[in-house]
Write a structure and sequence with these properties.
269 residues, alpha+beta, Fructose-1,6-Bisphosphatase, Chain A, domain 1, D-Maltodextrin-Binding Protein, domain 2, 2 domains, 8 helices, 14 strands, 26% strand
């Protein structure tokens, strides 16, 4: 079933602006069993997207972050012709704390791979999207890889220390190979910002398929590179957490992987 990308983007943008923004800095929050935060906005956004996507593309079921794990696993391995993989509110802790760095992430998976991805940042009204083989975009601007002209020592790194093992986190803190480090709190936007050149290298220890499915496609279609800390492709049709090491610039990616001791491999996403 063909997807009208403009229509899909409109659905996501309208849902985010009507379900997320009115609840920003308000509403109740609670903790899930894994300790992560959930708000009424997460649930409202997931319900809205489930209804809207089913109305326009009824053959494609939706896997959302706020579903139980047994359901998520069954959906990932179903024989449906396509599957929507949705994080209704990526950056919930930021959202609940009044920090304007959060997004909605939607990917279409077919034959075990993301073929379409949209990440919308309602605070900045920025829509990042990519389609397999058609490139990546932010609004109307094409995202593409280019030589940065800097060394690893001059880079800004986007790193989530919380989910790294203690030995690696200590090494990074004591012997940083980069110029400075940031941690913004939204995996989906991290991927998009790296794809847009807003930060040079990236590292995250544990992220789920709904966190990275759209963003990893956007980076790949922009010409970027990514692997796990074990040197594997980041994307896997599994809900188990995956690490991610990435960069838009090929040379910086090689230097970053070498510093981390990752087996030499370029461009696995």
């Amino acid at each position: 079933m063909p997807i009208d990308i403009a229509q899909l983007k409109t659905i996501i943008i309208q849902a985010a602006e009507q379900e997320l923004l009115p609840r920003f800095t308000g509403g109740e929050r609670r903790e899930k069993q894994d300790g992560s935060v959930i708000t009424e906005a997460d649930l409202a956004m997931q319900a809205r997207l489930r209804a809207e996507l089913a109305k326009h593309w009824p053959d494609y079921p939706m896997l959302g972050e706020e579903m139980d794990e047994d359901t998520q696993r069954r959906m990932l391995h179903s024989d449906a012709p396509g599957l929507w993989c949705v994080d209704p509110l990526d950056g919930t802790s930021n959202f609940a704390a009044g920090i304007p760095f959060f997004a909605v992430s939607v990917a279409l998976l077919q034959k075990g791979q993301p073929v379409l991805g949209v990440v919308y940042d309602p605070a900045r009204r920025e829509c990042f999207w990519a389609a397999q083989g058609r490139g990546a975009w932010c609004k109307d601007a094409r995202l593409y890889s280019r030589k940065s002209g800097i060394s690893l020592a001059q880079t800004i790194a986007l790193i989530d220390f919380k989910r790294l093992n203690s030995a690696l986190a200590r090494r990074l803190a004591e012997q940083p190979p980069y110029s400075s480090q940031r941690s913004f709190g939204s995996v989906a936007l991290d991927w998009c910002w790296i794809a847009a050149g807003r930060g040079h290298v990236y590292l995250h220890g544990k992220q789920r398929i709904w966190d990275y499915a759209a963003g990893s496609l956007i980076l790949a279609e922009a010409g970027g590179h990514a692997v796990t800390l074990a040197g594997e492709a980041v994307y896997r049709t599994d809900i188990a957490p995956r690490s991610a090491v990435a960069a838009l610039d090929k040379q910086l990616f090689k230097e970053w992987c070498e510093w981390l001791g990752i087996p030499s491999s370029i461009g696995k996403t």
